[in-house]
Amino acid sequence: MENALALFIIISLFALWKLDFIATLLNLKALDPKLPAEFADVFDADKYAKSQNYTRVTEKFGIIESIFSLMLMLGFWLTGGFGWLDNYVRGFGHGEIVTGLIFMGILFAAQVIIMIPFQLYDTFVIEEKFGFNKTTVKTFIIDQIKGLILMALIGGPILALILWIFDTVPMAWLWAWAAFTVIQLLLTYIAPSVFLPLFNKFEPMPEGKLKDAINDMAKKCDFPLTELFIMDGSKRSTKSNAFFTGFGKNKKIALFDTLVENHTTEGLVGILAHEIGHFKCKHIIKRMITGIIQSLVVFYLIGLLTDKNGEVAKLLFDAFHMDQISVYAGLVFFGLLFAPVKKLLSIYSNYGSRKDEFEADAYAANAQGTPDHLMQSLKKLSADNLVNLTPHPLPVFLDYSHPPMLERLEALKKLR
Length: 416
What we know:
Structural class: mainly alpha
Protein backbone atom coordinates (compact mmCIF):
# COMPACT_ATOMS: atom_id res chain seq x y z
CA MET A 1 0.00 0.00 0.00
CA GLU A 2 2.89 2.34 0.75
CA ASN A 3 4.23 2.07 -2.80
CA ALA A 4 0.72 2.28 -4.25
CA LEU A 5 0.01 5.60 -2.55
CA ALA A 6 3.43 6.98 -3.45
CA LEU A 7 2.93 5.84 -7.04
CA PHE A 8 -0.49 7.52 -7.13
CA ILE A 9 0.97 10.84 -5.96
CA ILE A 10 3.86 10.65 -8.42
CA ILE A 11 1.57 9.81 -11.33
CA SER A 12 -0.76 12.65 -10.36
CA LEU A 13 2.10 15.15 -10.23
CA PHE A 14 3.43 14.00 -13.60
CA ALA A 15 -0.06 14.07 -15.12
CA LEU A 16 -0.59 17.65 -13.93
CA TRP A 17 2.81 18.68 -15.26
CA LYS A 18 2.11 16.94 -18.59
CA LEU A 19 -1.24 18.71 -18.89
CA ASP A 20 0.38 22.10 -18.31
CA PHE A 21 3.18 21.18 -20.72
CA ILE A 22 0.70 20.30 -23.48
CA ALA A 23 -1.23 23.51 -22.81
CA THR A 24 1.99 25.51 -23.15
CA LEU A 25 2.90 23.83 -26.44
CA LEU A 26 -0.58 24.48 -27.81
CA ASN A 27 -0.31 28.10 -26.71
CA LEU A 28 2.95 28.49 -28.61
CA LYS A 29 1.49 26.79 -31.68
CA ALA A 30 -1.56 29.09 -31.57
CA LEU A 31 0.57 32.24 -31.97
CA ASP A 32 -0.75 33.89 -35.12
CA PRO A 33 1.68 36.14 -37.04
CA LYS A 34 -1.30 38.09 -38.41
CA LEU A 35 -2.29 40.97 -36.14
CA PRO A 36 -6.00 40.91 -35.19
CA ALA A 37 -7.68 43.90 -36.84
CA GLU A 38 -9.07 45.16 -33.52
CA PHE A 39 -5.55 46.04 -32.35
CA ALA A 40 -4.26 47.80 -35.45
CA ASP A 41 -4.38 51.18 -33.68
CA VAL A 42 -2.18 50.14 -30.75
CA PHE A 43 0.19 47.57 -32.29
CA ASP A 44 2.52 48.06 -35.23
CA ALA A 45 4.21 45.09 -36.91
CA ASP A 46 7.34 45.31 -34.79
CA LYS A 47 5.49 45.57 -31.48
CA TYR A 48 3.20 42.67 -32.35
CA ALA A 49 6.19 40.51 -33.25
CA LYS A 50 7.78 41.57 -29.97
CA SER A 51 4.67 40.52 -28.02
CA GLN A 52 4.72 37.08 -29.64
CA ASN A 53 8.41 36.67 -28.95
CA TYR A 54 7.76 37.65 -25.32
CA THR A 55 5.14 34.91 -25.09
CA ARG A 56 7.56 32.36 -26.57
CA VAL A 57 10.37 33.29 -24.20
CA THR A 58 8.23 33.35 -21.04
CA GLU A 59 6.41 30.12 -21.88
CA LYS A 60 9.65 28.25 -22.60
CA PHE A 61 11.22 29.62 -19.42
CA GLY A 62 8.14 28.43 -17.51
CA ILE A 63 8.65 24.92 -18.90
CA ILE A 64 12.26 24.83 -17.73
CA GLU A 65 11.35 26.13 -14.28
CA SER A 66 8.51 23.62 -13.85
CA ILE A 67 10.72 20.69 -14.89
CA PHE A 68 13.39 21.76 -12.43
CA SER A 69 10.91 22.21 -9.57
CA LEU A 70 9.25 18.84 -10.19
CA MET A 71 12.53 16.93 -10.46
CA LEU A 72 13.95 18.64 -7.38
CA MET A 73 10.92 17.80 -5.25
CA LEU A 74 10.76 14.18 -6.45
CA GLY A 75 14.49 13.74 -5.97
CA PHE A 76 14.31 15.04 -2.39
CA TRP A 77 11.31 12.83 -1.62
CA LEU A 78 12.51 9.58 -3.23
CA THR A 79 15.97 9.80 -1.64
CA GLY A 80 14.35 10.04 1.79
CA GLY A 81 14.93 13.76 2.23
CA PHE A 82 11.76 14.41 4.21
CA GLY A 83 12.49 11.61 6.65
CA TRP A 84 16.11 12.70 7.05
CA LEU A 85 15.10 16.32 7.69
CA ASP A 86 12.47 15.28 10.23
CA ASN A 87 14.95 13.15 12.15
CA TYR A 88 17.48 15.99 12.03
CA VAL A 89 15.18 18.67 13.45
CA ARG A 90 13.77 16.28 16.07
CA GLY A 91 17.34 15.83 17.25
CA PHE A 92 17.26 19.35 18.66
CA GLY A 93 14.92 18.05 21.35
CA HIS A 94 12.19 20.69 21.04
CA GLY A 95 8.43 20.14 21.21
CA GLU A 96 6.17 19.59 18.20
CA ILE A 97 5.48 23.27 17.59
CA VAL A 98 9.09 24.47 17.58
CA THR A 99 10.19 21.38 15.68
CA GLY A 100 7.47 22.01 13.11
CA LEU A 101 8.51 25.64 12.68
CA ILE A 102 12.12 24.59 12.13
CA PHE A 103 11.11 21.79 9.71
CA MET A 104 8.90 24.02 7.56
CA GLY A 105 11.25 27.00 7.89
CA ILE A 106 14.15 24.98 6.47
CA LEU A 107 12.01 23.74 3.56
CA PHE A 108 10.77 27.26 2.83
CA ALA A 109 14.21 28.86 3.07
CA ALA A 110 15.71 26.17 0.84
CA GLN A 111 13.00 26.71 -1.77
CA VAL A 112 13.53 30.49 -1.72
CA ILE A 113 17.31 30.16 -2.12
CA ILE A 114 17.07 27.56 -4.88
CA MET A 115 14.54 29.58 -6.87
CA ILE A 116 16.39 32.92 -6.63
CA PRO A 117 18.43 32.24 -9.82
CA PHE A 118 15.16 31.78 -11.73
CA GLN A 119 13.80 35.05 -10.31
CA LEU A 120 17.02 36.84 -11.22
CA TYR A 121 16.94 35.52 -14.77
CA ASP A 122 13.26 36.38 -15.17
CA THR A 123 13.72 39.91 -13.83
CA PHE A 124 17.14 40.96 -15.13
CA VAL A 125 17.27 38.99 -18.38
CA ILE A 126 13.77 38.34 -19.76
CA GLU A 127 11.95 41.40 -18.40
CA GLU A 128 15.01 43.54 -19.14
CA LYS A 129 15.22 42.29 -22.72
CA PHE A 130 11.62 43.29 -23.43
CA GLY A 131 11.87 46.68 -21.75
CA PHE A 132 9.77 45.95 -18.66
CA ASN A 133 12.31 45.77 -15.86
CA LYS A 134 12.97 48.82 -13.71
CA THR A 135 14.11 46.86 -10.65
CA THR A 136 17.65 47.48 -9.46
CA VAL A 137 19.76 44.79 -7.80
CA LYS A 138 19.46 46.75 -4.55
CA THR A 139 15.65 46.84 -4.77
CA PHE A 140 15.56 43.11 -5.59
CA ILE A 141 17.68 42.23 -2.55
CA ILE A 142 15.68 44.50 -0.23
CA ASP A 143 12.41 43.00 -1.50
CA GLN A 144 13.69 39.50 -0.75
CA ILE A 145 14.78 40.47 2.76
CA LYS A 146 11.49 42.25 3.51
CA GLY A 147 9.52 39.27 2.21
CA LEU A 148 11.43 36.84 4.41
CA ILE A 149 11.04 39.05 7.48
CA LEU A 150 7.29 39.40 6.90
CA MET A 151 6.98 35.66 6.40
CA ALA A 152 8.78 35.03 9.68
CA LEU A 153 6.84 37.68 11.64
CA ILE A 154 3.42 36.81 10.23
CA GLY A 155 3.61 33.29 8.83
CA GLY A 156 5.56 31.92 11.80
CA PRO A 157 3.00 32.81 14.49
CA ILE A 158 0.09 31.69 12.29
CA LEU A 159 1.75 28.33 11.67
CA ALA A 160 2.58 28.00 15.38
CA LEU A 161 -1.05 28.67 16.27
CA ILE A 162 -2.33 26.05 13.81
CA LEU A 163 0.18 23.48 15.08
CA TRP A 164 -0.82 24.24 18.68
CA ILE A 165 -4.52 23.83 17.87
CA PHE A 166 -3.97 20.47 16.17
CA ASP A 167 -1.80 19.34 19.05
CA THR A 168 -4.12 20.29 21.92
CA VAL A 169 -7.71 21.11 20.89
CA PRO A 170 -10.53 18.59 20.20
CA MET A 171 -12.10 18.99 16.73
CA ALA A 172 -8.84 20.72 15.87
CA TRP A 173 -9.52 21.02 12.12
CA LEU A 174 -12.65 23.12 12.80
CA TRP A 175 -10.96 25.47 15.27
CA ALA A 176 -7.89 25.77 13.04
CA TRP A 177 -10.14 26.72 10.13
CA ALA A 178 -11.94 29.33 12.26
CA ALA A 179 -8.66 30.86 13.45
CA PHE A 180 -7.21 30.86 9.95
CA THR A 181 -10.32 32.54 8.52
CA VAL A 182 -10.33 35.32 11.14
CA ILE A 183 -6.61 35.97 10.63
CA GLN A 184 -6.99 35.94 6.84
CA LEU A 185 -9.78 38.53 6.97
CA LEU A 186 -7.77 40.67 9.38
CA LEU A 187 -4.68 40.58 7.15
CA THR A 188 -6.80 41.45 4.11
CA TYR A 189 -8.09 44.48 5.98
CA ILE A 190 -4.74 45.80 7.22
CA ALA A 191 -2.50 44.80 4.29
CA PRO A 192 -3.11 47.94 2.16
CA SER A 193 -2.14 50.32 4.95
CA VAL A 194 0.48 48.22 6.75
CA PHE A 195 2.22 45.81 4.38
CA LEU A 196 1.94 47.23 0.85
CA PRO A 197 3.66 50.52 1.82
CA LEU A 198 6.70 48.47 2.84
CA PHE A 199 7.28 47.68 -0.83
CA ASN A 200 5.75 50.63 -2.69
CA LYS A 201 5.13 54.32 -2.14
CA PHE A 202 1.50 55.45 -2.18
CA GLU A 203 0.93 59.14 -2.84
CA PRO A 204 -2.52 60.78 -2.64
CA MET A 205 -3.81 61.57 -6.12
CA PRO A 206 -3.34 65.29 -6.80
CA GLU A 207 -6.33 67.52 -7.37
CA GLY A 208 -7.34 67.84 -11.00
CA LYS A 209 -9.39 66.49 -13.85
CA LEU A 210 -8.61 62.81 -13.24
CA LYS A 211 -9.44 62.86 -9.54
CA ASP A 212 -12.67 64.77 -10.19
CA ALA A 213 -13.69 62.33 -12.91
CA ILE A 214 -13.03 59.28 -10.72
CA ASN A 215 -14.92 60.78 -7.77
CA ASP A 216 -17.84 61.64 -10.07
CA MET A 217 -17.95 58.04 -11.31
CA ALA A 218 -17.79 56.72 -7.72
CA LYS A 219 -20.74 58.94 -6.75
CA LYS A 220 -22.69 57.90 -9.82
CA CYS A 221 -22.16 54.22 -8.94
CA ASP A 222 -22.81 54.79 -5.22
CA PHE A 223 -19.33 53.44 -4.51
CA PRO A 224 -18.01 54.44 -1.03
CA LEU A 225 -14.63 55.72 -2.20
CA THR A 226 -12.61 57.30 0.62
CA GLU A 227 -9.06 57.58 -0.75
CA LEU A 228 -7.30 57.73 -4.14
CA PHE A 229 -3.62 56.85 -4.48
CA ILE A 230 -0.90 56.76 -7.12
CA MET A 231 1.48 53.83 -6.58
CA ASP A 232 5.08 53.88 -7.83
CA GLY A 233 4.78 50.73 -9.92
CA SER A 234 7.48 52.12 -12.23
CA LYS A 235 9.97 51.41 -9.44
CA ARG A 236 9.99 47.78 -10.55
CA SER A 237 8.32 47.50 -13.95
CA THR A 238 6.81 49.43 -16.83
CA LYS A 239 3.75 47.18 -16.67
CA SER A 240 0.60 48.80 -15.32
CA ASN A 241 -2.43 47.91 -13.25
CA ALA A 242 -5.01 49.24 -10.79
CA PHE A 243 -6.76 47.80 -7.74
CA PHE A 244 -9.07 48.71 -4.89
CA THR A 245 -9.09 47.51 -1.33
CA GLY A 246 -11.08 47.93 1.86
CA PHE A 247 -14.20 46.65 3.60
CA GLY A 248 -17.61 48.19 4.10
CA LYS A 249 -17.73 51.97 3.65
CA ASN A 250 -13.98 52.37 3.50
CA LYS A 251 -12.85 51.76 -0.08
CA LYS A 252 -9.45 52.81 -1.44
CA ILE A 253 -8.31 52.83 -5.07
CA ALA A 254 -4.67 52.68 -6.18
CA LEU A 255 -3.46 53.36 -9.71
CA PHE A 256 0.01 52.45 -10.93
CA ASP A 257 1.87 55.57 -12.03
CA THR A 258 2.58 53.80 -15.33
CA LEU A 259 -1.16 53.44 -15.87
CA VAL A 260 -1.83 57.13 -15.27
CA GLU A 261 0.96 58.15 -17.64
CA ASN A 262 -0.23 56.02 -20.56
CA HIS A 263 -4.03 56.41 -20.55
CA THR A 264 -6.59 59.12 -21.10
CA THR A 265 -8.83 60.33 -18.30
CA GLU A 266 -11.84 58.62 -19.90
CA GLY A 267 -9.87 55.40 -20.27
CA LEU A 268 -8.75 55.46 -16.64
CA VAL A 269 -12.29 56.10 -15.47
CA GLY A 270 -13.36 53.10 -17.57
CA ILE A 271 -10.77 50.90 -15.84
CA LEU A 272 -11.91 52.12 -12.42
CA ALA A 273 -15.57 51.61 -13.38
CA HIS A 274 -14.63 48.00 -14.18
CA GLU A 275 -13.14 47.60 -10.69
CA ILE A 276 -16.23 49.21 -9.18
CA GLY A 277 -18.26 46.71 -11.20
CA HIS A 278 -16.63 43.85 -9.31
CA PHE A 279 -17.78 45.46 -6.07
CA LYS A 280 -21.32 46.27 -7.24
CA CYS A 281 -21.82 42.81 -8.76
CA LYS A 282 -20.80 41.18 -5.45
CA HIS A 283 -17.85 39.39 -7.04
CA ILE A 284 -15.48 40.18 -4.17
CA ILE A 285 -17.73 38.86 -1.43
CA LYS A 286 -18.63 35.83 -3.55
CA ARG A 287 -14.98 34.90 -4.03
CA MET A 288 -14.30 35.47 -0.34
CA ILE A 289 -17.14 33.17 0.73
CA THR A 290 -16.06 30.53 -1.79
CA GLY A 291 -12.51 30.68 -0.46
CA ILE A 292 -13.69 30.32 3.14
CA ILE A 293 -15.77 27.26 2.25
CA GLN A 294 -12.88 25.69 0.35
CA SER A 295 -10.53 26.27 3.28
CA LEU A 296 -13.04 24.51 5.55
CA VAL A 297 -12.80 21.40 3.35
CA VAL A 298 -9.02 21.73 3.25
CA PHE A 299 -8.68 21.82 7.05
CA TYR A 300 -11.03 18.84 7.40
CA LEU A 301 -8.83 16.83 5.02
CA ILE A 302 -5.70 17.98 6.85
CA GLY A 303 -7.28 16.64 10.03
CA LEU A 304 -7.72 13.22 8.40
CA LEU A 305 -4.19 13.15 7.03
CA THR A 306 -2.57 14.08 10.35
CA ASP A 307 -4.64 11.86 12.67
CA LYS A 308 -1.97 9.79 14.42
CA ASN A 309 -4.47 6.98 14.97
CA GLY A 310 -5.82 7.00 11.43
CA GLU A 311 -4.90 4.54 8.68
CA VAL A 312 -4.84 7.27 6.03
CA ALA A 313 -2.15 9.21 7.90
CA LYS A 314 -0.05 6.05 8.39
CA LEU A 315 -0.19 5.27 4.67
CA LEU A 316 0.71 8.82 3.75
CA PHE A 317 3.70 9.08 6.07
CA ASP A 318 4.96 5.64 5.04
CA ALA A 319 4.85 6.80 1.42
CA PHE A 320 7.15 9.69 2.33
CA HIS A 321 9.53 7.49 4.35
CA MET A 322 8.63 9.19 7.63
CA ASP A 323 8.99 7.40 10.97
CA GLN A 324 6.56 9.61 12.93
CA ILE A 325 3.25 11.23 12.04
CA SER A 326 3.23 15.00 12.61
CA VAL A 327 0.94 17.87 11.75
CA TYR A 328 3.72 20.01 10.31
CA ALA A 329 4.87 17.34 7.85
CA GLY A 330 1.25 16.50 7.10
CA LEU A 331 0.70 20.09 5.96
CA VAL A 332 3.54 19.71 3.46
CA PHE A 333 2.39 16.32 2.18
CA PHE A 334 -1.19 17.49 1.95
CA GLY A 335 -0.10 20.14 -0.55
CA LEU A 336 1.28 17.40 -2.81
CA LEU A 337 -1.62 15.01 -2.36
CA PHE A 338 -4.17 17.78 -2.83
CA ALA A 339 -2.61 19.00 -6.10
CA PRO A 340 -5.08 17.25 -8.48
CA VAL A 341 -8.09 18.51 -6.50
CA LYS A 342 -6.55 21.98 -6.32
CA LYS A 343 -6.20 21.99 -10.10
CA LEU A 344 -9.87 21.10 -10.55
CA LEU A 345 -10.88 23.80 -8.08
CA SER A 346 -8.73 26.36 -9.89
CA ILE A 347 -10.37 25.46 -13.20
CA TYR A 348 -13.77 26.06 -11.64
CA SER A 349 -12.70 29.30 -9.94
CA ASN A 350 -11.03 30.58 -13.13
CA TYR A 351 -14.22 29.91 -15.06
CA GLY A 352 -16.16 31.96 -12.51
CA SER A 353 -13.51 34.68 -12.59
CA ARG A 354 -13.70 34.98 -16.39
CA LYS A 355 -17.48 35.25 -16.13
CA ASP A 356 -17.07 37.98 -13.50
CA GLU A 357 -14.73 39.92 -15.79
CA PHE A 358 -17.37 40.02 -18.52
CA GLU A 359 -19.92 41.28 -16.00
CA ALA A 360 -17.57 43.96 -14.68
CA ASP A 361 -16.81 45.07 -18.25
CA ALA A 362 -20.53 45.36 -18.97
CA TYR A 363 -21.05 47.33 -15.77
CA ALA A 364 -18.28 49.78 -16.71
CA ALA A 365 -19.68 50.24 -20.22
CA ASN A 366 -23.14 50.98 -18.85
CA ALA A 367 -21.77 53.32 -16.19
CA GLN A 368 -19.88 55.36 -18.79
CA GLY A 369 -22.66 55.19 -21.33
CA THR A 370 -20.34 53.65 -23.93
CA PRO A 371 -17.94 50.68 -24.08
CA ASP A 372 -15.45 52.61 -26.23
CA HIS A 373 -13.33 54.11 -23.44
CA LEU A 374 -12.83 50.78 -21.69
CA MET A 375 -12.15 49.04 -25.00
CA GLN A 376 -9.44 51.52 -25.86
CA SER A 377 -7.83 51.13 -22.45
CA LEU A 378 -7.91 47.34 -22.68
CA LYS A 379 -6.23 47.49 -26.08
CA LYS A 380 -3.63 49.91 -24.78
CA LEU A 381 -2.94 47.67 -21.77
CA SER A 382 -2.49 44.72 -24.14
CA ALA A 383 0.10 46.62 -26.14
CA ASP A 384 1.92 48.06 -23.13
CA ASN A 385 2.12 44.65 -21.39
CA LEU A 386 2.79 42.65 -24.61
CA VAL A 387 -0.22 40.42 -23.97
CA ASN A 388 -0.68 37.24 -26.03
CA LEU A 389 -3.66 38.10 -28.23
CA THR A 390 -4.27 34.58 -29.57
CA PRO A 391 -4.05 32.08 -26.69
CA HIS A 392 -5.14 28.49 -27.26
CA PRO A 393 -8.47 27.51 -25.62
CA LEU A 394 -6.86 24.82 -23.42
CA PRO A 395 -4.57 27.11 -21.37
CA VAL A 396 -7.43 29.61 -21.21
CA PHE A 397 -9.66 26.87 -19.77
CA LEU A 398 -7.00 25.67 -17.34
CA ASP A 399 -5.31 28.82 -16.11
CA TYR A 400 -6.78 32.10 -17.31
CA SER A 401 -8.54 34.14 -14.64
CA HIS A 402 -9.36 36.78 -17.28
CA PRO A 403 -10.90 36.10 -20.70
CA PRO A 404 -8.66 36.56 -23.76
CA MET A 405 -8.64 40.19 -24.77
CA LEU A 406 -10.32 39.59 -28.12
CA GLU A 407 -13.27 37.93 -26.40
CA ARG A 408 -13.62 40.86 -24.01
CA LEU A 409 -13.60 43.33 -26.88
CA GLU A 410 -16.18 41.34 -28.83
CA ALA A 411 -18.46 41.24 -25.80
CA LEU A 412 -18.07 44.99 -25.26
CA LYS A 413 -18.79 45.76 -28.92
CA LYS A 414 -22.17 44.06 -28.56
CA LEU A 415 -23.08 46.61 -25.88
CA ARG A 416 -22.98 49.47 -28.35
